[in-house]
Design a protein that fits this description.
- This protein is an all-alpha fold.
- The chain has a single domain, classed as dinb family like domain (Four Helix Bundle (Hemerythrin (Met), subunit A), Up-down Bundle), CATH 1.20.120.
- About 60% of the residues lie in helices and about 0% in strands.
- The chain has a two-stranded antiparallel ribbon with strand order 1-2.
- Helix 3 runs antiparallel to helix 5.
Length: about 170
């Protein structure tokens, strides 16, 4: 169940983020704005810029998989400056997530998950997914979307949600 709550939706949203970034690049090109301006934009002075929002979303997704399964994931240096580099970061994260299977998460729900800033405290795998990883991932993806939208990029809810698995 934890696999289904994390890897497939994280992967989908990262694909949606790629499409949203493409629309951002088209917007920047049509308005004669350097894409770096958008990548460095933020909603508030004390928030991270678009590039950092995307880096954190990617890290949240891959570290969630790592923490729940114990499998190693690559680290990224957070040095992306260009659209091509940030898109490569997203694509790399998608490739990492696609290597995991439901079986990898077999014992994840009761695993003790911790990180340094929790100062020796932990969450179970299930608590970690529900109370930290999923909300944190969506916070940063949503903020990335909002930064582009705030700057005038013509994107909407359909871009954010992406294609739905509708049935007849």
């Amino acid at each position: 169940m934890l696999y289904e709550l994390t890897n497939p939706p994280f992967t989908k949203m990262l694909h949606n983020l790629l499409a949203i970034l493409d629309k951002g690049a088209q917007f920047a090109d049509s308005k004669k704005i350097d894409m770096e301006v958008l990548l460095n934009s933020r909603l508030a002075p004390d928030q991270f810029p678009l590039t950092r929002q995307i880096q954190i979303a990617c890290d949240t997704a891959k570290l969630c998989a790592h923490r729940l399964t114990g499998k190693e994931v690559p680290s990224h240096a957070d040095t992306e400056k260009t659209l091509a580099e940030i898109k490569a970061r997203i694509e790399s994260t998608i490739a990492v997530l696609e290597k995991f299977t439901t079986a990898d998460y077999k014992d994840a729900a009761n695993k003790h998950i911790t990180q340094p800033r929790w100062e020796g405290q932990y969450l179970t795998g299930e608590e970690y997914v529900l109370h930290h990883a999923v909300p944190n991932f969506y916070f940063h993806v949503t903020t990335a979307y909002a930064i582009l939208r705030h700057n005038g990029v013509d994107i909407g809810k359909k871009d954010y949600l992406g294609k739905l698995p509708l049935k007849k």
